[in-house]
Amino acid sequence: MIGDGRLDARPWMAGKATRAVILALSANGKPARFVGGCVRDALLGRPVKDIDIATPEQPDEVMRLLEAAGIRAIPTGIAHGTVTAVTGAAHFEITSLRRDVETFGRHARVVFTDDWDADAARRDFTMNALFCDPDGTLYDPTGGRADLDAGRVRFVGDPLARIEEDVLRLLRFFRFHGWYGKGAPDAAALDACRALAPGLAGLSAERVWSELHRLLAAPDPAAVLRLMADNAILPHVLAEADRIPRLAALTALEDRLGLAPDPLRRLAAAISSDGDGALAKRLRLSRADGKRLGALAAPDIRPDPAAARAERREALYRLGADMFRDLVLIGWADRVGDDAGWRALWALPETDPVAKFPLSGRDALAAGVPKGRRVGALLAEVEAWWIEGGFSAGRTACLARLKGLAAEDA
Prior knowledge:
CATH class of the largest domain: Alpha Beta
Shape: elongated
Distance between the termini: 90 Å
Radius of gyration: 28 Å
Largest sheet: 7 strands, mixed
Mean pLDDT: 94
CATH topology of the largest domain: Beta Polymerase, domain 2
Strand content: 5-15%
């Protein structure tokens, strides 16, 4: 391959673990090159999370070379050419150059090759088909550098054929557009996505949620969901997303407040309700995530900046600071304009905090209450009295109240 420019040296390229893996893979005199996301993100000046390496060595030889160098080698997908190298805390995914013989969904029947162009031709997007030597020499067989600079997510080859090979690429196109796209999406790609959108029904819930989760973490997920809706694609994966303007407002609030993206909170903002848990079940969310989504999308308590102080503080106590703030953000996004009131409500956990209820079941038992439901009932009565009093009663006063109620039972 002839070089197509250079990538300035980055710390991750010269790290001790990286150099050890590259040296091991190059022991037979064949080049080992960085590929995909690490090259793409480095060119954009973004943090590099995972380092992927491509090599013309076949998987069994990759295993042998790594082990000969004292590097742990894990055959994570050896039938498809993938080996994971582990040195210290660092992990590297190494793929042997390959070309597809037959494709069927996520998997393919491949043959290994020493042809770098053939390997590039089987990748999804041009910006993911960039290679880089350890010395920074770039190789760009599909025009990915120009697409990356232009903010254009473009399939390698025919978009229809690439999506038919694996329909998940359709969702990946929108996720990548959310993270790397600028302006209008690639027309040929969008046409293919519209044509093949019904095929999304065949994807597993786990794969759909994995892509949606990463899409929702993008800088402007509302714009991407709106694009999907306008092109009749969103109904195939997230028909419940009927509050896209609220999602846009929430994202803007997160930016103003310096908050990290929260995909589940953003999902809750994008839908009207999931009180019955249908969406959580369909996406196969974890029990904790499903419970949180339901609480955010169909809350029993809604923080209200117009409520009296006692009501606001009770909402904070009942919900807990994290859920309270999540619901404040969603409510704020729904009512853009009353900034001062919502900002004060957002700050409530710091400006007007609520103490933890000072009693437990152990206190009730110590007061002579027999084990059973009455323990919880008496504590609830004391708690209600404590809340009504503005959370001001201390442990001593609460204990006295508990003992008085227990004495009445005797």
